[in-house]
Amino acid sequence: MLIAAILTLAVGTYTMRLSGVMLRDRLELSDSLQRLLPMAAASLLAALATTAALMEGAGFAGIARPAGVAVGALLAWRKAPFVVVVLAAAGTAALLRLAGIN
């Protein structure tokens, strides 16, 4: 079942990408829509990241995970090296969980 789902998504992704190339000359988007598309992609990515940071299954993930994400986001914003960002975020979540704060 999992392999069938992966193959279906792969075929769908390939079809969407191919249709974009094939319809490039036939489809013309307005200037306002062309300005909105990058913002739509960014908002979709932000919603996905927020959901992953705050939810575990159908419930709230607890305080440790969002705190780790917040530390990582702060360090990334301050342009810290990627390894430092990942280790600090993971360390923050781990220390909070070790302290009994889920």
Automatic annotation (TrEMBL):
Keywords: Membrane, Transmembrane, Transmembrane helix. Pfam families: AzlD (PF05437). InterPro entries: Brnchd-chn_aa_trnsp_AzlD. The keyword Transmembrane helix applies. The chain crosses the membrane at residues 41-61, 82-101. This is Branched-chain amino acid transport. It comes from Actinoplanes friuliensis DSM 7358.
